[in-house]
Design a protein that fits this description.
The complex is a heterodimer of chains A (299) and B (132). Chain A has 299 residues and is of the alpha/beta class. Chain A has two domains: 56 residues, Helix Hairpins (Orthogonal Bundle); 230 residues, ATP synthase, F1 complex, gamma subunit (Pyruvate Kinase, Chain: A, domain 1, 3-Layer(aba) Sandwich). Chain A contains eight helices and six strands; from the N terminus they run H-E-H-H-E-H-E-H-E-E-H-H-E-H. A five-stranded mixed β-sheet of chain A has the order 3-2-1-4-5. In chain A, strand 4 and strand 5 form a beta hairpin. In chain A, helix 5 packs across helix 8. In chain B, strands 1, 2, 3, 4, 5, 6, 7 and 8 form an eight-stranded mixed β-sheet that branches. In chain B, a hairpin with a 2-residue loop joins strand 3 and strand 4. Chain B contains two helices and eight strands, in the order E-E-E-E-E-E-E-E-H-H. Chain B folds into two domains: 83 residues, F0F1 ATP synthase delta/epsilon subunit, N-terminal (ATP Synthase, domain 1, Sandwich); 42 residues, Single alpha-helices involved in coiled-coils or other helix-helix interfaces. By secondary structure, chain B is an alpha+beta fold. Classes of the chains: A alpha/beta (299), B alpha+beta (132). The interface between A and B is medium-sized, with 32 and 25 residues. Strand 6 of chain A pairs parallel with strand 5 of chain B, so a sheet runs across the interface.
């Protein structure tokens, strides 16, 4: 039988934990709102970018290094976007499992020959894949504390440079897409070489009218494309990073909400146990007194 | 009507959205100005200053770090990876960025990092220039 003081201490510690989880939930939900706004802010830019890039790709007939498919795929790069901090449920692990199964299914040979490597964004993916002996070429931590467009660009510029040099022949990116605060969608997306079919295939309402306009290109369309495609890639990574950030906050909010709920349940159970113990203590005490008094009377 | 719609967009949000009488932009092959009823154009932009002309209010200036513009049917969209209105530019930060870039240029490095440093320096100088 646990004694009364022990139970009281436990109740107190559960209460304290609950205070923390509740605070974390509030913080996460405030951050989530900010993160969502940032996603929304990118939309006009992203839409226009897609429109123009799609059009240029068609008119310049895919004559760009970033569009060209290498004859053989020798080396593969995966960019894995996770989080720096934990306490966000299965947010990281689910994504990592998807990455692993994708690699196992399609690129096992590359992994065995050490021709597949990773860029990890966030402390969690770095730790996870290091433990599993994946080759990591670059890792970025503390990235989400100060989320800025230009730091994302630095990463992407790095990737593009390596791709152009031929150090990577295909680049994929894995991240959590933000759907709602409760759900994330794990996505693995091919970044390089850019698939022109995908650019055309995106639904655009104004597509038809755009295609018939006779634009002046300054300089030629091909040169503009050289200029714009890296920016298009920057945007892809930026969008992924923002999504992952929002998804992380959503996941944390949900996880902390569950934890707060659980703390409530636990407290109820403990209180019941406490009351039982207290009652038992009183009963024993009374019976001791009674039997004591009885004993006195008999003598 | 001698005005047309113009937007300046960045990945982090919309910087400008409104009707203008003219917009002067730093094209990669020299700066040029767009007026109403300009022919459809797609042009890449250099690091530089964008001048936005209003009908009544005084002109506004923006520092942009390259990008491109698309114009069609009197609707101009300028996409830049970074764009700041002259009033919003943090002069201290720009000055610090300039010093940082200059320091990086003093050290020898490979061509790519020197190029990046030069670009950073140009961006910082441009911001300071526009802020004045």
């Amino acid at each position: 039988m646990a004694n009364l003081r022990d139970i009281r201490n436990r109740i107190e510690s559960v209460q304290n934990t609950q205070k923390i989880t509740r605070a974390m939930k509030m913080v996460a939900s405030a951050k989530l709102r900010k993160a969502q706004n940032r996603i929304i802010a990118t939309r006009p830019y992203a839409r226009k970018m897609r429109e123009v890039v799609g059009r240029l790709v068609r008119s310049a007939e895919g004559d760009n290094v970033l569009l060209r498919k290498p004859a053989t795929t020798e080396r593969i790069l995966f960019i894995v976007i996770g989080s720096d901090r934990g306490l966000c449920g299965a947010f990281n692990n689910n994504l990592f499992k998807v990455v692993q199964s994708k690699v196992e299914a399609n690129f096992k040979r590359y992994l065995r020959q050490k021709k597949l490597s990773l860029y990890t964004i966030g402390k969690k993916p770095t730790e996870y894949f290091k433990r599993r002996k994946y080759p990591i070429d670059q890792s970025y931590s503390g990235f989400f504390d100060d989320l800025a467009y230009h730091t994302t660009c630095n990463i992407m510029e790095n990737v593009v440079e390596e791709f152009v040099r031929g150090n990577y022949d295909a680049v994929y990116m894995a991240y959590n897409e933000f759907v709602t605060a409760l759900t994330q969608k794990r996505r693995v997306q091919k970044l390089l070489p850019i698939d022109p079919g995908k650019l055309n295939g995106e639904p655009q309402k104004k597509e038809k009218s755009l295609a018939t306009i006779d634009y002046i290109y300054e300089p030629q369309a091909g040169n503009i494309l050289d200029h714009i495609l890296p920016k298009h890639l920057n945007m892809q990574l930026w969008k992924a990073v923002l999504n992952s950030n929002a998804a992380e906050q959503g996941a944390r909010m949900t996880a902390m909400d569950n934890a707060t709920e659980n703390a409530n349940e636990l407290q109820e159970e403990l209180r019941l146990e406490y009351n039982q113990a207290r009652q038992e203590a009183i009963t024993t005490e009374i019976s001791e007194i009674v039997s004591g008094a009885e004993a006195l009377r008999e003598t | 009507m001698n005005t047309f719609e113009a937007q300046i967009l960045t990945p982090e949000g919309t910087v400008f959205d409104g009707d203008v009488t003219g917009i002067k932009v730093p094209g990669i092959e020299g700066s040029f100005e767009v007026k109403v009823n300009h022919a459809p154009i797609i042009s890449t932009l250099d690091i530089g200053k964008v001048r936005v002309r209003h009908t009544d209010n005084p002109d506004e200036f923006f520092a942009v770090s390259g990008g491109f513009l698309e114009l069609n049917n009197n609707k101009l969209t300028l996409l830049a990876e970074a764009a700041e209105c002259s009033e919003d530019i943090d002069v201290d930060r720009a000055r610090k960025a300039k010093e940082r870039a200059q320091k990086r240029l003093e050290n020898p490095g490979d061509e790519a990092s020197r190029y990046q440093a030069r670009q950073a320096l140009r961006r910082a100088k441009n911001r300071l220039d526009v802020a004045k």
